Amino acid sequence: MDFNTIDTDIKVHHYGYSNMAWKPLGTRKSYFFRNFLIYEAMQRKFFDDISITHPNLLTYREQMFFTHHDDKEGNKEFGEFLLKRCKNDKQFISYVVDSGIISAKKIMRFGKWLYSKDLSKYNNKQLAKFLRGVSETYMNLFPYFSTTVFVDRIEKEVLTFLENNIENSIEENKEKNRGGNREDNGEKNSISANALDRNNAKNKENDAKKKQKIQSVFMKLITSDKFSIIMLEQIEFLEMAAKTEEMIKAHHERFFWLPTTDESPAWTVDYFMEKAGLKERDYKKKSDAIRETQQKNQKEKNEIIKRLNPPTHIRQCIRMLEEFTWLRLYSRNIFNFALAHSEPLFEEISKRASICSNVIKNDVIKNDVINSEVTGNDVITIEDIKFCTPYELRDFLVYGKELDKALIEQRKEAVLFIYKNGNFSSYTGKEAKRVYNLEVEKNTVTVKKSHKQSKTKSLLEIKGVVVSSGNQPKNIEKDGKIEESGKIEESGKIEESGKIKECRKIKGTVRIVLTTEDGKKLKEGDILVARNTNPNLIDALVKAKAIITDEGGITCHAAIVSRELGKPCIVGTKIATKVLKDGDVVELDIGKGSVNRLSNGI
């Protein structure tokens, strides 16, 4: 893409942003190697690909968890850059998405090739080339993925348009309330205190309905017509299971009679299904339902756009959100692909590093290196390798420079990455802690707490943002009792008719998921509660009845995946993992965006 042809008002090389304000972003489990590549990509790749310096970022690690801080002011400026690009450059969205897909395909081609090789047959210099391939392909995708993250300003542009243009009866209802609550005493109209209270309550309810409707329309508008990798896996598995189901039915017809006697019945299809490990039926119907839902979503989206007829720049903003939301999830899955397919390479390097360490310490003859024994203290594990930089691993493989085990242990204790004004710095051990405390104390934004918890009374209700109402049965609330009734047709729809109110309430048992291992403990029907979600938790997300997170917004990972899987989801609660615990029974009110604890876990 030739950025020299773009309006000079957009073409800006930011060596630094005007203000600095660190804001805690989130905590994730990750390795040093992966985060190092991210920061390298910011410095080496980002400006060349996107034509602007990446916003400032800080990452601090203790005990395997990396805590990220982004630059609040820098993000705003970058958001304005994206908005200008969206309005004035029709090719920009396609450029980012197409370039991201090309980079992802390179990762997949190289990863598949690497994974198919017996790496023990290659010499160290060849392994160094493979490592460079892993690093470069990973970093090449990062600029396009990272650009998709900074869409808050684009979201605001679309939401503002919807607020001003969506048809609703809110204002009419307010007028009716104002007129209908007046009482004529023969001299003048007056409004009783009770009538005012009812009026205010009704207006608040109408405002909540309007907000909910806007969010519902917004989420339909940003739904992509492309399936994510997650949904492709679901469809492929269901279609494979459907073929197996047909084979089992044919097998049943041939052999169902085999055990039949006067006292023993024939085999059923379910017997063979269970024998094959298939617990459910009608897999084809389920895969068809996924495709039909996708088609229905696109039809609804087209109808909304036709009805609202947004101006060109709003259409561009909607397209950017749709395409970037898809690319964001796609890229995250591809990054996992890269790491999974490079695991044998890390394993082979760790074996050779362990042997090298043993050789140096015990003066083993170099010709006998492969046959030398490695003691426990000399072992360089795969985890150790993931706490090295690509350059350190290259120097070991090409020049025989021993890996610094002491430095690796310091990095495991603490490490700090800072990308500020176009420059990348890193610190290790005690120095990392010292610089982190100075940097954060000096520049961190004070985050206003929206929830207060009593010291003597545990919090019973948690508020968040509803990003998916799920494809769950709707409930009918009648005289204070909840009755299940069919399938819900519209997200969070609330209608009143006398004492009957259609609502969305999901009850379940909490499972706190902070690590991948925690996710493996989640049972079918549990409610997953996490700081945030990531592709590692896909099995748990599929099993979960509903999802609650501390962090995130309308286009976060949890929001995207929950909508694809049809799971109710509330994000941005700030405190769910701190207030709730395993075994708590909670009720999600999708209409209100709240989580109520009904009983405490053991």
How would you characterize the overall build of this protein?
By secondary structure, this protein is an alpha+beta fold. 51% of the residues lie in helices and 15% in strands. The chain contains 20 helices and 19 strands. The strands form four sheets. It has an eight-stranded mixed β-sheet with strand order 8-19-18-14-15-16-17-9. Strands 1-3-2-6-7 form a five-stranded antiparallel β-sheet, sandwiched between helices. Strand 2 and strand 3 form a beta hairpin. Helix 4 (92-115) runs parallel beside helix 12 and helix 6 (152-165) runs antiparallel to helix 12. The longest helix is centred in the middle third of the chain and has 51 residues, at 312-362. The chain is globular, with a radius of gyration of 28 Å. The protein starts with 21 loop residues before the first strand and ends with a strand.
